[in-house]
Amino acid sequence: MRGRGDAALPREVGVLAVVAFVVALGFGIVAPAIPLFTRAFGVGTTAVGLAVSAFAFFRFVSAFGGGSLVERLGERVVLASGLAIVALTTGAAGLATSFPVFLVLRAAGGVGSAMFTVAALALLLRVAPPTHRGRAAATYQGGFILGGIAGPAAGGLLTEVSPRLPFFLYAAALLVAGAVALVLLRAPAGAPAPAPDPTAPDALPLRAALRSRAYVAALVANLGVGWVLFGVRNSLVPLYVTEELGRGAAWAGAGLLAGSAAQALALLRSGRLADTWGRRPALLLGSATGTAALALLVLPPQTGVFLLSMATYGLAAALLASVPAALVGDVSPARGGRVVAVFQMSADLGAVAGPLVAGWLTDLASYQVAFGVSTAVVAAGLVAALALPRR
């Protein structure tokens, strides 16, 4: 017999997890094709980097506007519209015949991605009850992780056939995901419209959220996640393996896979810890483990230490993927699009700034200095977690 704490998650959580899997799978399929496709236009490596960063930059600058749209139009409309924009721009990018056109389409895709991400997370946190927000966030993030693991492998094979093919497949998958979201996220046919609840909270103003220690802790922790998980791990770690450890690219892939596998396995329990153990101790554990994992890379280079660091940070990332999101839901349980948008922007800011700062520090000093600063960024989340109320 299941206890009250084991009650099933709302149906929307499963739908959003499936959509997240499709989005991450497609993004992973396209990722290996982007450098080769960009090179086909006869441009240099700087332009290749620009094609990658344009998506992330416009995703960052448009997230706040996406949050405002969520508050005005509702999560379902913004979510489906964002998926449609990414699908159409990705498909058109596969047909592009010049680099400027390709770059503009990638930038527009970043806008659609921001709309989808903010709307999906806002809906997830609104429908999940407080006792299940950690598990809901973990389930949703699990979709992203599984898709992110499977996508690059399939993308490499498809790119061998044609660099344009991944773009078309991703566009088709997104259109299907958008249609599924429109159908399954709507109210059941014939169901009466819910009566207004005079006790339901209004959306929390962003200024009020920023005065909350819980919200600030969520922002700082999410900045560290973006800095390391989406930034430094993908940009600096492969170079560290080849240049410092003297190993081949396969070892870099093994380290990244170890981290992703550890995160995927730990997600099964991280959400439950956040809900039953408490947000503060769960965030303390995740931040402390993540800080220790990165501190290992400040030590003299050793392959075994590197693999241990990647796997340990994967365990920490499972908690850091669910607890901060649950905190945001606690702070703003109503349709708080802008509150969710700024939370998402903190991770995007880390993903953009992390590789740039870490790369500059590596050129200026060493890999160990770059990893030391990255450790400090994650440790800031630990300090913010210590400032949380005990209840």
UniProtKB/TrEMBL annotation:
Membrane spanning stretches: 12-34, 40-65, 77-97, 103-125, 137-155, 167-185, 214-230, 250-270, 282-299, 305-327, 339-361, 367-388
Residue ranges annotated for the Major facilitator superfamily (MFS) profile domain, each copy included: 12-391
SUPFAM superfamilies, A to Z: MFS general substrate transporter (SSF103473)
Keywords: Cell membrane, Membrane, Transmembrane, Transmembrane helix, Transport
Membrane topology, record value: Multi-pass membrane protein
Position of the signal peptide: none
GO MF term list: transmembrane transporter activity
Pfam families, per database record: MFS_1
Keyword Transmembrane helix: yes
One of the record's GO cellular component terms: plasma membrane
Subcellular location: Cell membrane
Name of the protein this chain belongs to: Predicted arabinose efflux permease, MFS family
